[in-house]
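Catalogue entry: protein
Contents: sequence, fold tokens
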Amino acid sequence: MTATVTAEAARSLAEPAGRGPAAAVTETLAVAGRRLRHLRRAPGRFLGITLNPLLTMLVLGFLLEKSLVIPGSGDYREYLFAGAVVQGALAGVGPTAIAVASDVRGGVIDRFRSMPVSRGSVLFGHTLADFVVGLGGLVVVTGFGLLLGWRPHAGPAAVLAGFGLIAVFLYVMLWVGVLLGLTSRSLETISSVTPLVVTVLPFLSSAFLAPANLPSWLRTFAEWNPVSAVAQACRELWGNPVAEGSGFPAEHPVLVLALTLGTVFVLAAATALRRYRTVGT
């Protein structure tokens, strides 16, 4: 199935017929540049991406630290940091969905489809631009985490690998945002739903709490939650405290991460590229 989706994405980028990959790349960069210029005129969107994880680190890392059970005997602030950066990656879903939905409502998507522009370049351009913004948010959250006491206890390669996992998770979530923007063109609905995703999904995982401390009926969901897999894998790479667990997700977080993120990316990208051809018609 992955090969089928990859082939479909390649065909989408190569359309219209007769245009080579270089033209598709140029068009993708042009769309990304347009999106970045819009973001420059609306810096509040960048603030929205970074505000949630910063507030989480402040509230949980300082105000409620003594009320939370720290896994093992480690520093809770170091445990918390991985959850905060994952939450920051999730925060990109909303702005991407709103941008795509606004383009659909404003007729921008229709104009792009009437031009000799490869179909996939519009969606890839959106995700590329928001990926750059998300990486900027990740830098801000990391700097704030260092100020609050987070420290990695591993070599440079392992630390970079952890941030690489966050970057992959960020990009996959942007495609979820693209799909949401194409399927739900109501900006009010998107604005209402996405904050719940950013807030609730991390709390139903090991991002901030150990799954063992959750009610039994929530524990299984928390252990298989992709957010848990990302946070657990990053903590292991960074040498930070990890949530104790004996299940398959806790023992093989990287494998669970690859399976879940791969599935989400394939489904979201394939559905979004297919939806793009008919949206607004």
Observations:
- Residues 1-14 have pLDDT under 50 and may be disordered.
- Residues 40 and 46 are 9 Å apart (CA to CA).
- The chain is about 75% helix and 0% strand.
- The chain has one domain: 2-276.
